[in-house]
């Protein structure tokens, strides 16, 4: 997985021009929570309320990425285990921590990144479906263990934890894994009892204490989502003003030079 970072572009696809040595460093928000707690749904709602969801992804000021893109590639023996539901995808070792850190660093340094999507049917990264992350103002990074790794946790400007009760999460995970992830009921329940539940208790749940905002009931909590959206809206407005001022300053300097 090399070459996922591209050099900083001078002119962004969303029309924002960067001065030669200016870096567009986004506000990075971590969104953690147990499996099927509603992390992706919360991110989607935030994007929708900010008017970003319907925008072409090259134009967005707010982008959302998933920790799934950083599952490490499995050895042939691990692949066989995974096919039988006997690989622990909820353990921190299932992720490529270094790549996750380097990618977030690159994004924070205003570089474009290309992330593979994740194919749950084959338990592997899908490099044919790559999500291009252009420099944005706000980046949401969601996943079960985004607050687990201290080095990564320290990169976030804001940390959200989606706190949905475990019965509800299991009731959502079962139909989702059967309908969308190509699993059968027996495998879903065995994986849940063997790996998912114990790993949630050992690795994910303890990271709730690092959150700045805990969102009980996930996407149903419209009050919490409204407050978060309001906060992000203020960040975007401040960024737009700063960019406008910078453009005016650059134009004034160039007029003065030409004179
Ligand atoms: N508030 C909600 N009410 C009903 N279903 C929901 C709600 N939030 C999420 N879901 C459903 O639960 C499943 C898991 O949600 P998702 O947002 O993908 O969770 P996560 O990203 O935490 O795994 C999906 O099928 C989604 O449509
Ligand atoms: N090949 C895989 C990879 C991951 N999982 C499960 O996905 C869960 C994380 O995704 P959420 O959208 O639910 O947060 C995690 O609990 C893994 O068990 C999988 O089943 N197969």
UniProtKB/TrEMBL annotation:
<dbReference type="GO" id="GO:0005524">
    <property type="term" value="F:ATP binding"/>
</dbReference>
<dbReference type="InterPro" id="IPR027417">
    <property type="entry name" value="P-loop_NTPase"/>
</dbReference>
<dbReference type="InterPro" id="IPR006083">
    <property type="entry name" value="PRK/URK"/>
</dbReference>
<dbReference type="InterPro" id="IPR000764">
    <property type="entry name" value="Uridine_kinase-like"/>
</dbReference>
<feature type="domain" description="Phosphoribulokinase/uridine kinase">
    <location>
        <begin position="28"/>
        <end position="223"/>
    </location>
</feature>
<keyword id="KW-0418">Kinase</keyword>
<comment type="pathway">
    <text>Pyrimidine metabolism; CTP biosynthesis via salvage pathway; CTP from cytidine: step 1/3.</text>
</comment>
<comment type="similarity">
    <text>Belongs to the uridine kinase family.</text>
</comment>
<protein>
    <recommendedName>
        <fullName>uridine/cytidine kinase</fullName>
        <ecNumber>2.7.1.48</ecNumber>
    </recommendedName>
</protein>
<keyword id="KW-0547">Nucleotide-binding</keyword>
<keyword id="KW-0808">Transferase</keyword>
<dbReference type="GO" id="GO:0044211">
    <property type="term" value="P:CTP salvage"/>
</dbReference>
<dbReference type="GO" id="GO:0004849">
    <property type="term" value="F:uridine kinase activity"/>
</dbReference>
<comment type="pathway">
    <text>Pyrimidine metabolism; UMP biosynthesis via salvage pathway; UMP from uridine: step 1/1.</text>
</comment>
<keyword id="KW-0067">ATP-binding</keyword>
<dbReference type="Pfam" id="PF00485">
    <property type="entry name" value="PRK"/>
</dbReference>
<dbReference type="GO" id="GO:0044206">
    <property type="term" value="P:UMP salvage"/>
</dbReference>
């Amino acid at each position: 997985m090399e070459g996922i970072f591209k050099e900083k572009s001078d002119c962004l696809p969303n029309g924002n021009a960067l001065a030669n040595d200016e870096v567009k460093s986004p506000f990075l928000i971590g969104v953690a929570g147990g499996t099927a707690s509603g992390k992706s749904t919360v991110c989607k709602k935030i994007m929708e309320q900010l008017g970003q969801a319907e925008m072409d992804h090259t134009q967005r000021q707010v982008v959302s990425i998933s920790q799934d893109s950083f599952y490490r590639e499995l050895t042939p023996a691990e692949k066989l285990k995974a096919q039988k539901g006997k690989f622990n995808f909820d353990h921190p070792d299932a992720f490529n921590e270094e790549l996750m850190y380097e990618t977030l660093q690159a994004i924070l340094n205003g570089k474009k990144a290309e992330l593979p999507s994740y194919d749950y049917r084959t338990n592997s990264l899908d490099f044919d479906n790559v999500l291009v992350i252009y420099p944005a103002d706000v980046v949401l990074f969601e996943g079960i263990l985004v607050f687990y790794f201290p080095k990564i946790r320290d990169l976030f400007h804001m940390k959200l934890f989606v706190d949905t009760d475990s019965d509800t999460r299991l009731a959502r995970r079962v139909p989702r894994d059967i309908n969308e992830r190509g699993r059968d009921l027996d495998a879903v329940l065995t994986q849940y009892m063997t790996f998912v539940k114990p790993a949630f208790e050992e690795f994910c749940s303890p990271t709730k204490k690092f959150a700045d905002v805990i969102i009980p009931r996930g996407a149903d909590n419209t009050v919490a989502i409204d407050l978060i959206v309001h906060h992000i809206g203020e960040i975007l407005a401040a960024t737009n003003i700063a960019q406008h001022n910078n453009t005016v300053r650059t134009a004034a300097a160039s007029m003065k030079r030409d004179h």
